[in-house]
Amino acid sequence: MGPEEFDRNVELALADAQLRRNFAFAMGSFIARRQAVFSDAAQTERLRGQGQALKRRVLSRLPELLEELEANCTRNGIQVHWAETPAVANRLVLDIIERHAATRVVKGKSMVSEEMHLNAFLEKHGVEVVETDLGEFIIQLNGETPSHIIVPAIHKNKQQIARIFHEKVPGAPYTEEVEELNAIARATLRRKFAEAGVGISGVNFAVAETGTLCLVENEGNGRMCTTLPPVHIAVMGLEKVVEKLADLPPLLRLLTGSATGQFITTYVNLISSPRRAGEKDGPTEVHLVILDNGRSRIYADPELRQTLQCVRCGTCLNHCPVYTRIGGHAYGFVPGADRQDPQPPGFRTGPGRRPHHGLEPLRRLRGGLPRQDPHHRAAAAPAQRGGVTGGRERRARPRQPPQPNGAAGLGRVAVSQHPPAGQPPAELAAGPHRQRAAPGGAPGALDPLPKGAPFRPHPAAPPGEGDRNQR
Amino acid sequence: MRRPRGRQRTAFPRKDQNPLKPNPVYFFGTCLIESFFPRAGEAAIRLIEREGVPVRFPAGQSCCGQPAYNSGYPDDARAVARQQLRAFPDDEAPIVVPSGSCAGMMKHHYPGLFAGEPDQALAERFAGRVVEWSEFMAARLGVELEDRGAPLKVTWHSSCHAMREMNVIAHSKGLIRQLSRVELVELARERECCGFGGTFAVKHPAISGALVTDKVDDIRATGAERVIAGDCGCLLNITGAIAHRGLPIRGQHLAEFIWERTHGS
After folding, report:
1. Do A302 and A468 form a contact (C-beta atoms < 8 A)?
2. pLDDT of residue A422
3. Composition of chain B by helix, strand, coil, percent to 5
4. Which phi and psi angles does B49 have, rounded to 5°?
5. Is CB count within 10 Å lower at the N or C end of chain B?
6. pLDDT in tens, B154-164
7. What dihedral angle (degrees, nearest 10) is formed by the CA atoms of A30, A32, A36, A42?
8. Which of B73, B117, B211 sits opposite A321 (nearest CB)?
């Protein structure tokens, strides 16, 4: 999406008084709820420090932890697949579905699947995909994408949802009663849960030590998706791995407190294996698809690495004055989920593509976003005339991400040919992790990733390098 | 320029005899004050001098470089920033800045901007000397203000950088609260941006306009006659929107406001 389209979207969004009211109300109540559960500033700071330390520790040994996760999942009977790109990940998911001759899939809310555009891909291949998170269900009925990573249908009010249900759910009466609307969704979804051949979910934290997948949710739909269908496929970005089971409580407290203002979600699912002999329920197969999609490149860049600390709580969106005015759809992608490079919400650069700065105290894990903005803008700044200083033909010189073959690129190096925003530099398009992609890039192979070749992100920058911008 | 005699305490050394006070300090005027709010700059200097601290205003200073830096032009920003490094003598004296935004740029971003470049050490020393004006007045000088104005209801706008990057809002508001006949009414959504955002207001006028409309509504709801701020970028944006709507609310930089209230003019 170019700047002109963004400006048009902004114009439409600003003119939509209902949309602005919906967002202002919803974001205001999220801010208040979060403040209520983080009312003790000193305790919150301690918790943030703890969360930050845990995530930094993960990043200091990410490749090793991913291998430990794979080993322990495999030992538990969870089949692990590696995908460097969304195309590979989509193919892997479709192959599993086709292997089981399934035509119906139920899905719990997963932002990484939004990043992959998984629904569109599966539907193109004749698979019926039903979103079961209530918010996702609403917007799927209406043919929309999420406007918020935590509350996908936050831009809709009760009346709009009543109309969508009445028009799109066969036999549904028009009602604005919340209980009745819930009952319509419940009746529709229960049938879908029972009929589905495969359930797909995301992952909030994957515990390397035990090979456990942790998934938080409030509606029970996540538990249905991961226990009722005979096959469960979990998809995750590779930054979701954590070291130990004991790391979960502080991280969950930060995530749920920040995301929804809850001390704990209604459901906390810890999935550690498929159904075992003698067990009466649970899927017979559990698959874990681990997606890279640029994350290993971010990992290798000391300026960017700390962004992988983000737990995707979405608080930055709630507090963003720009997001609150124009909503998530105006950006042309799902802020915080749908992007070429996995970055926390608002991270994308380029004209008008980021929610406003000034979020320093909100990022629960202190990801260092505002400090990186100039770096990203430098990468996106037009080289031609018309920059802020006017008339300069020189191109801005951002730091160059390190080369895959060593630390040579760690210093400040002039980039003569920087790619347009959103595209990886050509020299990084072929890193060592490519070796795990499908041979020749041909889709279709059931397991396109050669076995026995452990996944490795780019050689790590020295630990702590990425922290130079931390206060 | 001296403080009124009646307020001197005998148990302590007079303020202008305090050996802990810096002597002198340098003043960084900022582009916006020089171009649009010169009286705010004059007031800020006079208020420091009134405490017995000589103020030096180095010629040759210009802009902190933030517009270029934030727009993704680090080379251009560095060239502008280097001019500031050269303009100020390389000594220990504080560099007082009447803006949270410019101070934030110089204090928190110069070291990174010059990392691995010539002048890195100089930039780090410079950054370490930068102090925002209200923090300097309240925390370093410990000013005591005597209100000489008529009763007045005001509200306060926190700039994003003063609040989040410089963390000086307590000092700014503390100065206002020292004024005995001034009632400070807080904004309902104080933490929200006014929509200025430097070049943001130029690049995205529609969104910026929506933000400042809400900000002015918030200001209006306090019933205050005046909105006080520590950053002239916000003030320019907010007072422009107020004027556009023809509202009887005046915007003023904190320094100018305090000078007016305490100098009796």
Report:
1. yes
2. 34
3. 50, 10, 40
4. -65, -35
5. C
6. 999 999 999 99
7. 100
8. B211
Question: What does the radius of gyration of chain A's CA atoms come to, in whole angstroms?
Answer: 22
Instruction: Report the alpha-carbon distance of residue A151 to residue A163 in Å, rounded.
Output: 19
Residues B260 and B180: their CA atoms lie apart, in Å, by: 14
Residue of B nearest to A353 (CA): B204
How far is residue A133 from each of residues A130, A220, A447, measured CA to CA in Å?
9, 9, 30
- CB-CB contact of A56 with A366 (8 Å): no
Q: Cβ of B211 and A325 within 8 Å?
A: yes
> Do residues B201 and B208 lie in contact, with contact meaning Cβ atoms separated by under 8 Å?
yes
ipTM: 0.81
Mean pLDDT of B111-116: 96
Q: Tell me: the pLDDT tens digits for A269-321?
A: 999 999 999 999 999 999 999 999 999 998 998 878 888 988 888 888 888 88
Across the interface, which of B71, B112, B115 has its CB nearest the CB of A388? B71
Distance CA B96, CA B28 (A): 6
**pLDDT for A377 beyond 60:** yes
Q: Are B149 and B182 in contact (CB under 8 A)?
A: yes
The alpha-helical segments, DSSP class H, found in A81-117 are 86-99, 111-116
Put simply, the answer to whether B67 touches A378 (Cβ < 8 Å) is: no
B109 interaction partners in chain A (CB closer than 8 Å):
371, 374
What is the percentage of chain A residues whose pLDDT exceeds 90?
Answer: 55
* pLDDT for the residue numbered B192: 92
Task: Dihedral sign for Cα B134, B136, B137, B143, please.
Answer: positive
Question: How far apart are alpha carbons A201 and A234 in whole angstroms?
Answer: 5
CATH number of B147-263: 3.40.50.11810
Enumerate the domain spans of chain B: 5-139, 147-263
Q: What are phi and psi of A443, to 5 degrees?
A: -75, 165
- Predicted pLDDT of residue A357: 35
One-letter amino acid identity for A404? P
Host H or E run for residue A78: strand A78-83
Has residue B32 got a pLDDT over 60?
yes
Question: Is residue A303 a contact partner of residue A466, using CB atoms and an 8 Å limit?
Answer: yes
Chain B closest-CA separation from residue A374 CA (Å)? 5
Angle at B194 between CA B154 and CA A386, to 5 degrees: 140
Q: Is the pLDDT of residue A456 over 80?
A: no
Residue among A77, A73, A107, A71 nearest A279 (CA): A77
Question: Per-residue pLDDT for A405 more than 80?
Answer: no
The mean pLDDT of B106-112, rounded to a whole number, is 96
The answer to whether residue A387 scores a pLDDT higher than 70 is no
**Type of residue found at A315:** T
Candidate from B74, B164, B165 with C-beta closest to A397: B74
> pLDDT: is A376 or A71 the higher one?
A71
Instruction: Name, in order, each residue with C-beta under 8 angstroms of A200's C-beta and a sequence gap of 6 or more.
Output: A93, A105, A106, A107, A108, A110, A113, A118, A129, A225, A232, A233, A234, A235
Given this model, what pLDDT does residue A450 score? 34
**Cα separation of A451 and A431, whole Å?**
18
Second-level CATH architecture of B5-139: 3-Layer(aba) Sandwich (3.40)
Tell whether A354 lies on the interface with B, counting CB pairs under 8 A. no
Separation between Cα atoms, residue A175 and residue A159, nearest integer Å: 8
* Element of type H or E holding A287: strand A285-291
Alpha helices in chain B (DSSP H): 31-35, 38-50, 66-70, 74-87, 100-104, 110-113, 120-129, 133-135, 160, 169-177, 200-203, 205-221, 232-244, 254-263
Same fold, B5-139 and B147-263: yes
The pLDDT of A78-94, averaged and rounded, is: 97
Question: Cβ–Cβ of A389/B195 closer than 8 Å?
Answer: no
Measure the CA–CA gap between A51 and A258, rounded to whole angstroms.
12
